[in-house]
UniProtKB/TrEMBL annotation:
This is ThuA-like domain-containing protein. Residues 80-267 form the ThuA-like domain. It comes from the Bacteria. Pfam families: ThuA. SUPFAM superfamilies: Class I glutamine amidotransferase-like (SSF52317).
Amino acid sequence: MKVYHSMKLIPSLSERSKGIATRFFVLFVLTFSLSTVLSAQIQNTSDVYESTNRPRALAVIGDRYHSPVHVRNGLMGPLALENIPVVYIENHKALTAEALNGVDLLIFLKDGQIWHNGYEQGSQVMWMTDEQQQAIYDFVNNGGGFLALHNSHGIYPPDGLYYEVFGGNYGGHPAPEEFMIRVEDKNHPITAGVEDFRTYDEQHMSKYYGEPDQLLLRNISDANKSAPAGWWREVGKGRFVYLAPGHTPEALGHPMMVRLIRNSVRWLTKQSDDK
């Protein structure tokens, strides 16, 4: 009988021990890495689910060019992730001082015109009354948060309290196209985790009258046309944020825009002050 002493058909005890140790180490590293990622995600989101005392929002949405369904669907995700109860209204007459008494956050994606006789040229009128302007101003001045999106600076009563809160004005826009949104202030809580991004949208050429250090975003076309695309303000005890993207579902639902909305909501309701 031949005995093949040179063949190693069974690994030695020391080799098996090394293999087990290696596999255990790899498993430990993978488990630790996964738990670290999950912990970070939980820390970033779980705090909004710890209390029933959540900020409440009123969203005024929809106009001739922006379906309330498109706007509502774009806002539902970021507001749900921040656990913000929200009421959506399309009827501009429902925006009253009494309605604002029950909320902490006002959201607009709606221009300032209504059309009495269909969409015939010349039939449009401004809908916002002096009482509504005063109600919005008082709401923010007394501590409320106001998030204005896309065309919410478009064609409201000139030189009124609404534009005084806004700190900017409508400057028109070219046809929708793809362009860049550049982050101007990377150190503000509103832009935390936000990177420059390209999106297909209306490039609003907004007029901005505020301080340079309160400018958050700038849009830049491939033809090098640019304009302010986001800013923040403090008005009395309250806060205001404007974000320009939002004409298309792609722009409103872009991951970077979702992050901007979530961050804005937290800053406007003063949840991010101590973070």
